[in-house]
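Could you please consider the sequence and fold following this short note?
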Amino acid sequence: MLIPLAVWTTPALTNPVSEQIATRVMELQDSEERWIEIDLTNQRLIAWEGRQPVYAIIVSTGKDSTPTHPGTFTIQSKRRKDRMRGADYDLANVPYSMYYHRGYAIHGAYWHRKFGTPVSHGCVNVAVDHAEWLFDWASVGTPIVIHQGIEELAKDQ
C-alpha cells in the first residue's frame, strides 16, 4: 500500500487557479526561496524557506462579502505604518503592511482579536507581533500563495 507523503503532487486539476497554485507551490518547494502560504479554509499562514516551514500563525482573511482571493502573488510594496480606508472603515497607523495585489495586503490588526475567523475586507489580518516578524523576514518580491485549503484542492482532482 502506498501512502502519500506530500499534499502537493503533479496536479490533475480542472480549476485553472488551483492548477496554477499547485504548480507554483511545487516550484517554490524545489527552491531555497522564501515564500508565504495562506490557507483560507484553515485561516493559517506559513512562512517557508523552500520545503522548510519557519513560522506558522493563525490569521483572519476576508469574510464572504469581501473575500480574500486565491492565487499566486508577490509582495509589491511594504509600509511600516499605513492608513487604510474603505466604504465602511478608516484605520490609521495600520502596522507592517505588505501589499501583494492592488489594495490587498498582509498586515497587523490592532482592532480585533478574532484571528482564525474571516473578518477582514479582503486583506490578511495578522496579530501585530506576528506582522512585525513577517515584515522583517519578507522582502519586496517574496512570493505569496493563497489557496482554499487541501480539502478544496482535492475536490478539483
